[in-house]
TrEMBL record:
Coiled coil: none annotated. InterPro entries: B-phosphoglucomutase_hydrolase, Beta-PGM-like, HAD-like_sf, HAD-SF_hydro_IA, HAD_sf, PGP-like_dom2. This is Beta-phosphoglucomutase. Its EC number is 5.4.2.6. The keyword Hydrolase applies.
């Protein structure tokens, strides 16, 4: 890996820089358990657990997760209640983030340190509207010259991943042609976005998607941890 060959490096956030899923899982649990404790209508009000998360919520848009969980418990799920609880989950995310913080993957910090030493411009490209808050909580906001969050994408009218537009915009802000920029992604849709944007190098980070799926989606290389991308001492940049 010759980092000096590239003019910019673009990181997805959740699952690449920070294990943000932990914060989301805690927020879902706090929101649903406070709702269940106060619900006296029909349905099963046994406490919400991680098993509910994996069965009903994981990977879905927020409101769909709320609707499917309520339905799984036989609790009526009119749109009003779905939206209210979905919004409460978003509030809970910010409360948990501020209270518990979030620690970046140690291997990712090693790579960020290495790239800072080389002076390569760095950016975050995330579908999440919370991206700046997560970076702030992890103490890494000052490492990136640009953060293309979900909010920025909406403001600029950029379609989300798997469309390449948010990554292309990030490269542009950093003054790099996509062919001279690197994308790091843990999600199939994000790897697809990097491949569709004809980036110089698309690195898949396997946090569970699997080497085969990330490779099929267009990753040039797949690593399990970003520390693998830090050249050994004395091996050059
Ligand atoms: Mg991700």
């Amino acid at each position: 890996m010759i980092w000096a060959d590239y003019d910019a490096v673009l990181f997805d956030l959740d699952g690449v820089v920070t294990p943000t899923a932990i914060v989301h899982m805690r927020a879902w649990s706090e929101m649903f358990n406070s709702f269940l404790a106060s619900w006296d209508g029909e349905g099963d009000t046994a406490p919400y657990t991680d098993a509910d998360y994996y069965a009903q919520v994981d990977g879905k848009p927020r409101y769909d997760g709320v609707r499917d969980f309520l339905t799984s418990r036989g609790i009526p799920a009119p749109e009003e209640r779905v939206v209210e609880l979905g919004d409460r989950k978003n509030d809970a995310f910010n409360v948990v983030l501020e209270r518990d913080g979030v620690e970046a993957y140690p291997g990712s910090v090693l790579l960020l340190d290495h790239l800072r030493g080389l002076g390569v411009p760095l950016g975050v490209v995330s579908s999440s509207a919370n991206a700046p808050a997560v970076l702030q909580a992890a103490g890494l906001l000052d490492r990136f010259q640009t953060v293309v969050s979900g909010t920025v994408a909406t403001e600029l009218g950029l379609p989300g991943k798997p469309a390449p537009d948010t990554f292309v915009h990030g490269a542009e802000v950093l003054g790099a042609a996509p062919a001279k920029a690197v994308v790091l992604e843990d999600a199939v849709s994000g790897v697809r976005a990097g491949a569709a944007g004809h980036f110089g190098l698309v690195i898949g980070v396997d946090r569970g998607a699997g080497v085969d799926r990330l490779t099929e989606a267009g990753a040039d290389v797949v690593v399990a941890d970003l520390a693998e991308l830090v050249p050994a001492e004395g091996a050059g940049a």
